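So, can you check this record?

>
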Amino acid sequence: MDLCKMHFCKHMNGFFMHSITLPEKVKIHFASLAGKLLELKRPNGNIWYVGLVKNGEKLVLQPGWHDFVSANDVSQSDLLVFKYNSETTFEVLIFDQSGFEKSCKTEEKSSGSLQIITKDELSGPKPVNVASHLPASDLQENEEDDNSESDQISETRTPPLKENSGKRKERTSDARQVAGERRLKAQKLQQQVQPGNPSFLVLIKPSHILRSVITIPSKFYSEHLPKKSGSFFLHLAGNKEWLVRYIDRSYRQELQVKQFFLDSNLQLGDFCLFELVKGAEHTTFNVHISRN
């Protein structure tokens, strides 16, 4: 096969920020490039240098890959098409989930995109491989946090003052407005979920902030998550990722999310939608936030 006519593509699903694995059917054609720097060229002429490393039987784009992803705004469900030009050069086209090609950032200069990569990096730490996308979906609001721990602080209360009917109506109207706004936010977040990915919704309350813990709804846990403690990845738009601890307490399942809360600056009243990426080799949630 004429390598200059070879193209291959990769869907960006799950944990792709720091490395991707070349498809099985094309790796044999590029085995001689292992340990070398590849030139990834965008249509506007900008070039990024990314190391191709060998991990067992796999070929992995890793050293320098994070810079390429960040600079080109690569997001979940994007499709990247690699067109082999010659020797170590590939032209890379990026398409969003609707099939439209993403434009290049004109302010990016190729002279500033070179990253110094050491020989040790080209020998390659272990990458994370992502399997292909699979279908299934649901959305539910996480109400179990309220049952797992009270959000209220006990205090001595004085008897309530009598309230006239006008104020009661005003308060009722305000409560309905708030409820309507919350429903609208939840619906907008749900629209961001990819078909086939199950999800659950959390309204950030004092217990979340104090404990830095998210309780997973039991129905979601029983249908979609492993029945043992471990680690999950959280991915936020803007290509930021966290490795968080998942605790299975038999009576309650929790995500320990202290660093995620701090970095994402979550506040009381914010909505968080946790979207489970089906098909990822490592359990990964895309997180969508609607600020209060």
